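Action item from last week, closing it out:
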Amino acid sequence: MVCTEFNIEEAKNWLKDNLNEERYNHSIGTMEQAVELAGMLNLNVEKARIAGLMHDCAKCFPNDKLLKIIHDELTDVQDYELVNYKTLHAPVSAYIAKTEFGITDPEILSAIRWHTLGKVEMTDFEKMIFLADKIEKNTRNQEFRDECMALITLKNGLSLAMFRCYQETIKSLVDRKLAICHITISVYNDLLASSKMV
């Protein structure tokens, strides 16, 4: 057992109070997708359920609150993580999961922490939560979900599906003429190599 003090129904109620309806539905979808992927990949289903549910718990906090928590409480957030306000919630969500819900499992906290930008040499569990966030069925594109789910069944499928996600992310940033964080390029290159696509 992990996080024996964690009460999933209490967490759902907290999320209903702190997220908008779409983000709450997304969190439920991510939890369900994480459980499905954990079963496919022989990873810890209970941890997947918790990480999937809690990954966006700080998503609807105002930016000034996110920044205050980062500056006051978190010492490991790098400058490149502060460039895009859409990614500020990831380290704060890990912080909230730990401080508000008593989650201390490092695998769960790390998966929440890195579910937006990702990082080089992610564990399978971290990759799984990253993917669950991108392909859950409640709010994400069904065609893209089906494509990624098919990739996961292949040899080295987790990295293949991750690589596909990064392709889409980079393409979207280029199309919108937005800056690409250097860590995104590093992860893309790492996945390119690990997926044996070179």
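Closing note: The first helix runs from residue 8 to 18.
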